[in-house]
Amino acid sequence: MDRLIRLYPLFFAFVFIGQVALGQDILKNGIPEFIPEINYELVEDRLSCIQSEIPLTFNANVQSFIEYFAIRDRAYSRNILMKKEVYFPLFEKKLKEYGLPDELKYLSVIESALNPNAISRVGAVGLWQFMPATGRSFGLHQDWYIDERMDPEESTEAACKYLKQLHNIFDDWELAIAAYNAGPGNVRKAIRRSGYKKRFWEVYRHLPRETRSYLPQFVAIIYTLKYADQHNLTTIDQQFLPEYDTIRINQYFHLETFCNQLNLCYDDLAKLNPQIKRGALPAKTRNFPLRIPSDLKNHIVKNRIFLYDTAAKVGQKKLEYLARNTPGSTFGRQKISYRVRNGDVLGKIAIRHHVRVSDLRRWNRIRGNLIRVGQRLNIWVLPAYSSKTKKLYTGTLDNKDKSKSKQTGSKLKTGEKGKFYQVKQGDTLWDISKLYNDVPIARIKELNNLTGNKIKPGQKLLIGTD
């Protein structure tokens, strides 16, 4: 998407002069290729013949992108034609389930060129280019090993939910599509600045620059792919998704080792499971649906114990080491929220929480060293990131440590079953953790059956057991 979004109509005004008026021959692999003449009256008529709930407006902006897809970058268009049967059947099925227009499947072409592993310069990922926060809000799991934004089925489900939500907000498919690119906030702002107009082309000039080209690209790629034959855009290398089944994994699992035992090409398994980023599933994996070629299912089930045991013996320690030490990794860590105080700098905060400055920057999208008082920072700490907290967590404090703990935690109350703290106004789990010698937040949550970080004044929390 990034490459195409930067190609704007003014660029095409001079690129195509003299190329479109007549049908022409250009070289393709040294062989002359005929490109039919583009008759724009005919193009407009063809667009009007496409049955769609989404308006397919033809104008100079759309014309420029049709020229791009049909003439300037025919290799790109052929690549899409080659891959579309891999993913379009899935898109069509999901869109139908959600009662959405079939043409929305072409958004994935503009977003990712049908590449499930596509990553944009701003961190959007997958066929539908979900940003991390948006992906999580629609249930797409992301960690060091797995990123469900790359999972064709999961991400398509999430995209359908998001598109349906956007249409419910704007009650207009063109604006919903614009919001998919720019976010609903930017579209609302454009509507407000236009004097509360309610159509895409009426708010067009108030939209972000990228978004102005987004809908024209969408219309242009629909036309190009539907009328590919008329523009001599054909391909003989059509790709299809092989038939697959699933097996459930509940252990550490090294994919290449598994493939070697089956004489299966690793790339074929990776294409079926693009959401697996590191070629393995972690030890904490539970009920993971691994896609496999259907014809191997019976053999795998019969030899399950041997195959799974072999796949569990390769590379685990190395991958876990990399997971812990890769800059920005959250593997095996607990998230806390820290509010910047007077005198804080990134280095001081990093030392206090036993993390690296580079990690703090990645976790919070900080380019330099500038932070401000009151700013909230996301920090992923190890469950026991110092010898002191490790002792407290495991219950191995010696007498000296216990004495110090009692002095520091003067507000600690002892009950029959353990030590309790009564929450005061403004308290957070992090504050309570600091009050009692950095007892891990995960430990407090575990002892009190807390599923989130929300606590309320007056609540009694069990801090430690006697």
Q: How would you explain this protein's 3D organization?
A:
With 466 residues, the chain is mostly helical. It is built from 23 helices and eleven strands. The protein has a three-stranded antiparallel sheet with strand order 9-10-11. The termini are far apart.
Throw out a few tags for this protein.
466 residues, mainly alpha, Membrane-bound Lytic Murein Transglycosylase D, Chain A, 3 domains, 3-stranded antiparallel sheet, two-stranded antiparallel sheet, 23 helices
List the helices and strands and how they pair.
Layout: H1 2-5, H2 9-15, E1 24-28, E2 31-35, H3 40-49, H4 60-72, H5 74-97, H6 107-112, H7 132-137, H8 152-170, H9 173-182, H10 184-193, H11 200-203, H12 209-226, E3 244-249, E4 253-254, H13 255-262, H14 266-272, E5 280-281, E6 288-293, H15 297-302, H16 304-311, H17 316-325, E7 334-339, H18 346-353, H19 357-364, E8 376-381, H20 387-394, H21 399-408, E9 413-414, E10 419-422, H22 429-435, H23 441-447, E11 460-464
Helix pairs in contact: 2-4, 4-12, 5-8, 8-9, 9-10, 9-12, 13-16
